[in-house]
Every structure is written in structure tokens, then in C-alpha cells.
Amino acid sequence: MEDNQTGEEQQIIAPEQESTEIKPSEAVSVEEIDKLQQELNEANNKYLRLYAEFENYKKRTNRDKEELIKYGNESLIYELLTVIDNLEMALKHAAGNSSSGLVQGVEITYKELMKTLEKFGLSVIEADGKHFDPSVHHAMSQVERDDIDENIIVEEYRKGYKLKDKVIRPSLVAVSKKTSRIQAEETAEKEINNTEEES
Predict the structure, then answer these.
(1) For residue 103, how many other CB atoms are within 10 A of its CB?
(2) Within 13 Å of residue 5, how many CA atoms lie on the same side as its CB?
């Protein structure tokens, strides 16, 4: 029986002892290895590009979603600015008749509307007496004034508004400038000072 077991063991062992040598027909050439390595590198580069594109897409989508949430009411609020303008105009024209119930009703409506819109991030752009800022003000005219510095807003024709940090309507304003006589005097003074400094 031992002979039988030895024979079976030999049969079992025999496959493990088979040669692991590569037959010439199965050999891989250096060119094929280089080609496979190049394909692997290309696939890896393609994967990295796609991964980067996907990450950029996710960031862009998140940014768009945040802006939609932040400024989703912009068009509605912009349309309501005309209503605000009309209420302000009605209050301005009725300034001398503040005892009227109608005027009081308009004033209450105006205040409630502004209070509600402020909750959503609407704010008035300050203009009167401020330095002109082209990012929030549009100059409609210039007014010659010697009593104040140049580029100071002297009149506001229409209020401007921001929604959170975004200008949705710039203020329409009149901006101060020095009179021609004052400008000529200042220019002459500068020329005299420059001439004295050069001497």
C-alpha cells in the first residue's frame, strides 16, 4: 500500500514540479512591453485628466448652487425696485400733507416693504455727500461747486441698491467739479510751485 501512496504522491507532486519556463512562442518582446507600458501611461493620464475635470465640475456646480441660493430672488427684488421708487415719489409729493390717512398708509406700506426686502439682503447704496465710486454710482451730470471737493455726490436722482454684496441697480447721481476759474487758479498755483522747486 505504501507503494500506492508513493505513486499517488508522485502524481500529485508531478504537476507542481512542471517547468515554469516560458516557451519561445509565449515570450513577450521588449517592444510589446514598451507598447503596453505606453498604453498604461496613456490610460493613467486620461484617468487623471478625467478626475481633474470631474473635480472642477463638482466645484463649479457647488458654486453655481450657492449663487442660486444667494441671488435666487434677484429678479423679483429688481422688479420691486420700481414699486419702491413709486412709493418714495408719492411720499415726497405728499410731504406737506402728512396728516392724511392715505399718506400714512403709503408710508406704512413703504416701510414694511423695505423691512421685508432687507431681510432678504437688499440694502440702499449711500450716495449724498459721498465720494463718487463708479462701481456703485453712475454719474448723470457734473455740477460746478467751489465749496466742496471734486467728485463728491451733490444730488441723487435715483437710489441704487445692492443685494447682499452685488449691485443690482447703481445710483444715478450728480457729481461736483471745480469751476473753470478755480481750476485755472489751481493749475497756475501748481505751475508756480513747480517753477520755484526747479529753481
Answers:
(1) 17
(2) 2
Cell of 23: 516557451
What CA–CA distance (Å, rounded) separates 40 from 34? 10
In angstroms, the CA 45 to CA 38 distance is: 10
Q: Angle 74-93/101-119 helices, nearest 10 degrees?
A: 150
Q: What is the DSSP string of 9-70?
A: HHHHHHHHTS--PPPGGGPPPHHHHHHHHHHHHHHHHHHHHHHHHHHHHHHHHHHHHHHHHH
Give the number of C-alpha atoms closer than 13 A to the C-alpha of residue 22, restricted to the C-beta side: 6
Q: In the chain, which residues have pLDDT < 50?
A: none
Under DSSP, is residue 99 helix (H, G, I), strand (E, B) or coil? coil
pLDDT at 93: 86
How far is 22 from 166, CA to CA, in rounded Å?
Answer: 72
Place of cell 410731504: 95
The pLDDT, as a whole number, for residue 84 is: 95
Three-state SS letters, 161-196: EEECCEEEECEEEEEEECCHHHHHHHHHHHHHHHHH
> Do 55 and 47 contact (CB within 8 A), yes or no?
no
Q: Are 106 and 137 in contact (CB under 8 A)?
A: no
Is-contact 162 122, C-beta < 8 A? yes
Cα(142)–Cα(186) distance, integer angstroms: 19
pTM of this structure: 0.60
